Every structure is written in C-alpha cells, then in structure tokens.
C-alpha cells in the first residue's frame, strides 16, 4: 500500500483518498471534517466495486469520484492541470513547482493537488492500462497462453530474458522484447459511457447519401455488402465498424537511427466524416517494439487484437448511456490501410518478384530487365476495352500487341480455400522451410491471421493500398527523371540498353563510339538552363500559409536538385503545381503525359472512378495522412530514449484519461481548441489573415475583375441553378454548341455574369435569397487594398518579393512563372508569359 504499512488513504472531505495518513489522523479527520459523501464504494480500502455501478445510467466518475459541492472559485481542475502540462511538454519538476505556487496562492483548504504525483494518482482512477506481453527476440512467438511459463522460445530456443552485454549474464525478469497491448473491449465500453460520443456513434444510420455522391464510407459498396450479408449486425446502428492501419516510424530525432517501432491503430467509421479519422478518435491498440520491423512475422504480435475481434464479432454486453440500457455490442473490421510493403505483411502476399501484384496474383505480367537488374510490370493494357486502339500500338509500349483478357480478381473465399492447409513458419531464424512453402504456393508467404476472423473471407475489400505513398513515389520519380538526379532518375545507360534489347524506341538507343557512349536526348530531357528554370519556379513558389511546407527550403537552383520533400509536398505538386511549373518547358507529348498523370491522381481524390473507391468510399478515409501525423505525435511522446515504447504507452494513457475525464465528468473545465494563427485579428477589408505592412488602395483592371467575378459565381452554391439554366439556354439557342463542350464552356464563362445580372434584376422579388444573389450578380468593387508584403494567416505566402506589390482580391494564391531570359527559349519557341492562379 502506498504511503507505508502504517498509513492508509484518508477518506475525509479534504483528503479524498489522495493523502495517506496514520490511523489516528484519519480518525481525527473523519470526526472533524466528515466523510467524503461521494466515496460510496471503499475500493481504496479493499472493497470490490460491484459491476452494476458501471452501468447505473450516469457516468460513474461523476458520482463516485467528483463532488457536486462548490470549491473555491479560483480552483483549477486536475484535468486542466495535466492537459496544460502535456500540451506544453513541461517536466514533472517544473509542473510541481507551479502547482505548489498555485496551492499557496489560493485560499486555505483548496483542493488543488500539490505535486505532479498527486495529479497522476488522481487520473489513475480513469486509467484503463495496458498489457505487457513478452515476445521472443526473433519474433517466433508470444509468451502467453500455453507459453506463459516458458523460459525459452519453443521454436528457436532463445532465452526469454535479456542478457547483459558486458557480463554475459542473464537478467532474469527483464524480457528481451515486450509487446504492449491496449485492451480493446474496455475502451469500447468507455466510448458508450461518454454521452456525446455515444450519440455520434449512430450518426451513420441517418446520413446515407441522398444526392448520389459519396461523403462517407457508409455510402460505399463494402458497407452495403456487410449490411446485406449480416442483417442482424446492421439492425443495431450501435455496432461498430473499424479500419486498421499500421506502419513503422523512427521514435528518435536522430535520422541516422534505423530503429523501427510499429503502432497498430484503429479508427471508428460510425462517427461523422469530420471526426472518424481525427486525432482524438484514433485508437492505439498495439505497440510493436523495435529495433527491427516485424515484417512477415507481424501476425505474432496481432494475436491479442485478433482474439478480441473474434470475441467482439459474437458480441459483448455494454451499457449505453444514451438509451440507459445494456445491449450486445458487435464489431467488424472492414479493411486495413497500409503502404505496399505493409500490405504484403498483413495480407501474406509477396510484394516483389514475378507475382508482386496482389490483384492479378498468378496472372501478373512481369519482365526482367537484364541491364537494370529489376523486374518491371508492363501488362496494363489488358485492362483496356477490347477495341481500344492502344492495344494495337506496339511501338508506344513494349513492342507487342496486347490481346490478353483482364485477369480475374480472386475473392476472399478463393484465397482462404487456397491457403487452407498452408503451414506458417514465423521467426527470423529458420528460412529454408519458409522458402519451400513459398515456392509451393507461388505469391503467398503465409496464411494471414486476419482469416481467423469469421467474416474476413466474405469482405469485398480487405486491404487498402495507401494512395499517399503511391503518389509520392510517382512524383519523386518524375522530378528525379526531369532533373536527372542521381539515384532518382529512371533514365540512364542501363535503361537505354534495355530498350535496345526490347527492340523499341530506336531513337533512344545508346550510340557507342570506341570507348565513349552517347545517349541521345529524350523528349523529356532538360538542358542545364531549363533545369535551373524548373528549380527557380519551385524556389519562388507562393502558396497560402498552411497550404504546404516551404518548398523553397528543399530546392537548390545552382545544383538543380529537389530534395527533402515530404509526402504532402509531393501531393501538392501532383495535384496542382507540377503542370504549371513545366508549362512551356517540354514538348507537347511529355507535357501532356505528365499533366494527365497529375489529373489521374486529382480525379482519384475527387471522384469515384476506380474499383477501390467504389468499394471503400472517399479516398480521405483510406489514406495514411492522419496516421502519419498521429505517428509524429507519438514520436513527440518519447523522453527516455532507452525505453521509447514505454514513454509512448504512458503518455498515451495520460492523454486517454484526460480525454475521458473531460467528456465524462459533469462540470469539468474544458480547454478551448488551439487557435489558428492570426485568427484573433479582425478587419473589415481583409477577411482572413493579418497584414504585415500598411496597405494602399488601388484600382483593379477589368480583366482581373472579370476573372474574380467568374470564380466567385462558379463556386457559390446559391448560383448553381442559374449556371445549369444558362448552359441549357445556350445549347438550345445554338445547335452548333451542342456537340462542342469546350466551346460551350468558353461562351458560358464569358456571358454568364452579364446574363445573371439581367436575370436577377427581373425576378429578384420572388427569391428568398435575392439579397445574396443580387449582391453576387452586381460583381466586385473596383478598388482593393494592396500590400508590399502579404497578410499573415490564411492568405500568407511562404515566399514573396518585398519589391513587388501583391494585391489580394478574394481567396486564392498565385504562382508567377518568370519569363525565360532572351538568351534561350523553350522548345515550343514560346516565352513563358503566364500567371497561374490557384483558386
């Protein structure tokens, strides 16, 4: 017992079991101050709390641990104290000093804790804890269940305990590797004890799409298929649907360290779209320790989670605070979200070699490049319609006519049948047996542990390939090839020799003369000046504050290199900036190809064009961005670099307790959300942001006014009916426009502002939103404020020239492409005299 054997927690009104006193002092406190009326069950003194108190219809914490009587007005709640400490990364010593100061400043008999220890002891009441499970050093097994009492691994026979590197003696009681498991079932029960959260868990029931668009995974085919196959599951909207994501990260600030820690996270798709993948609702379930990644042996570490998921499929009894009744909670894991290497680890398929495609499987078309020493996959024309002209274009592709059929995609039942008798060999010691099994089953390395879930083989989509990593790799290869960056370019002597072996693209074959080799320039090859211009455009890029990182920090104009960009920076380049940056620098063919690739990724993020998107819903619910950001948060939890996983686990528990305390305890003080930069600045002219300099009023040209007016009109919801009405009138009045969409859009853009103004002036009295429409139809004013330096905030530009006036009219940012100097011209013999407006 804390405090010594002669001391016990004092249950008086002042101490409230937070201070340990002797028996005489406790007796004196109870006689003078009285008993704490909220201390109903004497759990601090050995009494077991009845299970029913967890389901009494009220948050148990508010009735058992918090008093309704008022304390001194200046007093601060413990959750606020701990939240401030966690947010500002205060040390225990500095935080204790602050608490002592506050305690002395407040009136006597205040209940503010005196130390960090007291705060942690109070929050421990709400701590659900985690399990420490010993694991084999070689990832062969977990020391649980039948292996619980073993001293050595039953597979590789390595010791369970750590060996001192200096003395070579075994440290009994100190395991070599510890898996931390945060039990899932207690956390799900807690979700239904928070009233606000419990209400939102049924949001999906009444928010199916009604406009034909996909807003949430509830609108996906996967969701509907679960409803159709298991109607008893879908009958209760409180049953939960989870997505699982995992990836490795380096928990240290030292980038040279190869330590890899793997968190396994769950997200709840029952919640609204603005909450289901937010940081507060990402649930950490497993923390797989390093220093090496688990690889194919990740199934060993997933066993505790899979056991709970199997139990939750049958259901567990949970109390719902909204309906004030118990119900049988069931859970289904609908898919996983991973990059390609982790995809292979979880699905059990190979991601390398001749059968690397998890969709095509045994029908993957691969080709070995002798000089480049790698496999490439060039059979994509099979997926085109049979009459598509590309299928007959030999010279454009691999020199062959494509007449094969689309490969059949194996479903879960077929894969489960195929791997029914597959014997898994886990661990990083015995490789020979595993290799023989791999050759026996082709693309499969193991039978995934997810097939132990009763419903897994019936799901239409089991694993999501993260588009974030794919987009980053594609953009990195494009930029590396354009700038001919060593190690990043896909063009070179070996690539040209492979073209020669394939007998295609004869104009690119290397020319060998004596001991020298000449590589003919390709259409995408840039000169030294063009490379510098490309880098200069990226260096002088102007984007709004928060739009991306400062890309100019990653660009070297002199060395013509782009390095150190993050995944989101590549995302921004592929979505909007790259087609603008290469404008006028490349011939039509490669320029259009790069633009179309960017357009392809742009459509993936916006529209339903692919099988996976139809199956899983909008892409933002199936990419790794929120999980990568969350792993950055976990990385910030590490204080003791000797035990990174322990730091992460303890800090996560503290954050979890604070979140529950704030949501559960009635009358709890809530901290406001972090305010965005410069939001406190108010100005009638500048809607968002803070100006750096004193502005001056200017008159805008008619061209700028027309562009701004058109943008506002075409992006305002109230104007949408009029947009469609004007388009229909144009097509009916001129039959030539009916077959030419480009000409329709051109005429529509030019004439719509004038037409709308006339239309609104005629029937404005019949419209309930006439004031807004009349205001929009009249157009913007001709004057605007101009600043020598841009406003900080939403409109802040990361890079700007103080000598150039920048006018801000409406939303948006500009990317100004400098003119190419007179001493050289672009390939298309046209100067780059353009300004791209990102609206």
Short description:
By secondary structure, this protein is α+β, with helices and mostly antiparallel strands. It is built from 25 helices and 24 strands. The strands form 9 sheets. It has a 7-stranded mixed sheet, with helices on both faces.
List keywords for this structure.
single chain, 839 residues, alpha+beta, 6 domains, 7-stranded mixed sheet, 3-stranded antiparallel sheet, globular, TNP2-like transposon protein, DUF4218, Transposase_21, Transpos_assoc
Description:
- The chain has 839 residues and is of the alpha+beta class.
- The strands form 9 sheets. It has a 7-stranded mixed β-sheet, with helices on both faces.
- It is built from 25 helices and 24 strands.
- It comes from Cucumis melo var. makuwa (Oriental melon).
- It holds the Pfam family Transpos_assoc.
- This is TNP2-like transposon protein.
How many extended strands? 24
Whole-number mean pLDDT? 79
- Helicity level: 25-40%
- Give the count of structural domains: 6
The biggest sheet amounts to: 7 strands, mixed
* Strand order in the largest sheet: 3-6-9-8-7-12-15
SS strand fraction: 5-15%
Total number of helical segments?
25
Amino-to-carboxy terminus distance: 64 Å
Rounded Rg: 32 Å
Structural class, from secondary structure content?
A: alpha+beta
């Amino acid at each position: 017992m804390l405090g010594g054997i002669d001391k016990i927690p004092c249950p008086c009104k002042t101490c409230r079991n937070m201070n340990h006193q002797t028996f005489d002092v406790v007796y004196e406190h109870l006689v003078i101050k009285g008993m704490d009326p909220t201390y109903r069950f004497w759990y601090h003194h050995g009494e077991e709390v009845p299970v029913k108190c967890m389901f009494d219809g009220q948050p148990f914490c508010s009735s058992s641990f918090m008093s309704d009587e008022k304390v001194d007005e200046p007093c601060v709640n413990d959750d606020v104290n701990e939240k401030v400490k966690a947010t500002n990364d205060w040390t225990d010593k500095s935080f204790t000093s602050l608490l002592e100061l506050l305690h002395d400043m407040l009136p006597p008999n205040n209940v503010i804790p005196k130390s960090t220890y007291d705060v942690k002891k109070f929050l421990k009441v709400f701590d659900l804890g985690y399990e420490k499970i010993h694991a084999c050093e070689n990832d062969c097994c977990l020391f649980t269940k039948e292996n619980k009492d073993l001293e050595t691994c039953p597979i590789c026979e390595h010791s369970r305990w750590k060996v001192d590197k200096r003395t070579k003696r075994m440290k009994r009681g100190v395991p070599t590797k510890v898996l931390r498991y945060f039990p899932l079932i207690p956390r799900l029960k807690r979700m239904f004890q928070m009233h606000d959260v419990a209400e939102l868990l049924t949001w999906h029931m009444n928010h199916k799409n009604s406009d034909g668009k996909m807003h949430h995974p509830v609108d996906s085919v996967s969701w509907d298929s679960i409803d159709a196959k298991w109607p008893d599951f879908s009958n209760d909207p409180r049953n939960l649907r989870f997505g699982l994501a995992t990836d490795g990260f380096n928990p240290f600030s030292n980038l040279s360290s190869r330590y890899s820690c793997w968190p396994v996270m769950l997200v709840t798709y029952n919640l609204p779209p603005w909450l289901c993948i937010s940081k507060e609702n990402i649930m950490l379930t497993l923390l797989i320790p390093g220093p090496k990644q688990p690889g194919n042996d990740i199934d060993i570490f997933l066993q505790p989670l899979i056991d709970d998921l199997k139990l939750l499929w049958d259901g567990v009894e949970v109390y719902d605070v909204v309906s004030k009744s118990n119900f049988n909670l069931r859970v289904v894991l609908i898919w996983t979200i991973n990059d390609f290497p982790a995809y292979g680890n979880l699905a059990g398929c190979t991601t390398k070699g001749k059968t690397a495609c998890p969709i095509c499987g045994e029908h993957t078309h691969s080709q070995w490049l002798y000089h480049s020493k790698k496999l490439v996959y060039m059979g994509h024309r099979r997926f085109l319609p049979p009459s598509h002209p590309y299928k007959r274009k030999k010279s454009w592709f691999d020199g062959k006519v494509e007449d094969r059929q689309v490969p059949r995609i194996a479903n879960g039942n077929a894969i489960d049948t195929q791997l029914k008798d597959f014997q898994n060999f886990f661990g990083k010691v015995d490789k020979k047996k595993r290799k023989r099994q791999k050759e026996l089953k082709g693309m499969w390395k193991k039978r995934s542990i997810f097939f132990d879930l009763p419903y897994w083989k019936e799901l239409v989509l089991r694993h999501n390939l993260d588009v974030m990593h794919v987009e980053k790799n594609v953009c990195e290869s494009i930029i590396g090839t354009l700038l001919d960056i060593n190690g990043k370019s896909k063009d070179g002597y070996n690539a040209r020799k492979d073209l020669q072996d394939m007998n295609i693209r004869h104009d690119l074959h290397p020319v060998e003369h004596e001991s020298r080799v000449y590589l003919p320039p390709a259409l995408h090859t840039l000169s030294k000046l063009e490379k510098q211009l490309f880098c200069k455009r990226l260096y002088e890029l102007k984007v709004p504050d928060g739009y991306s990182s400062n890309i100019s920090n990653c660009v070297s104009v002199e060395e013509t290199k782009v390095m150190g960009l993050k995944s989101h920076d590549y995302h921004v380049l592929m979505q909007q900036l790259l087609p603008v940056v290469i404008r006028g620098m490349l011939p039509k063919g490669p320029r259009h190809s790069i633009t179309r690739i960017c357009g392809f990724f742009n459509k993936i993020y916006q529209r339903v064009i692919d099988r996976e998107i139809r199956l899983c819903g909008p892409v933002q619910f199936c990419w790794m961005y929120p999980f990568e950001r969350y792993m950055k948060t976990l990385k910030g939890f590490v204080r003791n670099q000797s035990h990174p996983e322990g730091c992460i686990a303890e800090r996560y528990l503290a954050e979890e307790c604070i979140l529950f305390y704030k949501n559960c305890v009635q009358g709890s003080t809530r901290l406001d959300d972090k305010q965005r930069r410069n939001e406190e600045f108010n100005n009638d002219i500048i809607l968002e942001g803070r100006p750096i300099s004193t502005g001056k009023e200017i008159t805008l040209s008619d061209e700028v006014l027309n562009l701004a007016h058109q943008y506002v009109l075409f992006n305002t919801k109230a104007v949408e009916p009029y947009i469609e009405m004007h388009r229909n009138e144009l097509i009916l009045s001129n039959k030539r426009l009916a077959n030419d969409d480009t000409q329709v859009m051109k005429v529509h853009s030019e004439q719509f502002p004038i037409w709308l103004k006339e239309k609104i002036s005629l029937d404005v009295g019949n419209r309930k939103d006439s004031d807004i429409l009349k205001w929009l139809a009249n157009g913007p004013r001709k004057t605007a404020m101009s600043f020598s330096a841009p406003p900080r905030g939403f409109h802040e530009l990361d890079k700007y020239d103080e000598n150039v006036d920048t006018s801000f009219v409406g939303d948006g940012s500009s990317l100004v492409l400098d003119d190419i100097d007179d001493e050289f011209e672009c390939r298309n013999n046209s100067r780059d005299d353009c300004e791209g407006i990102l609206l």
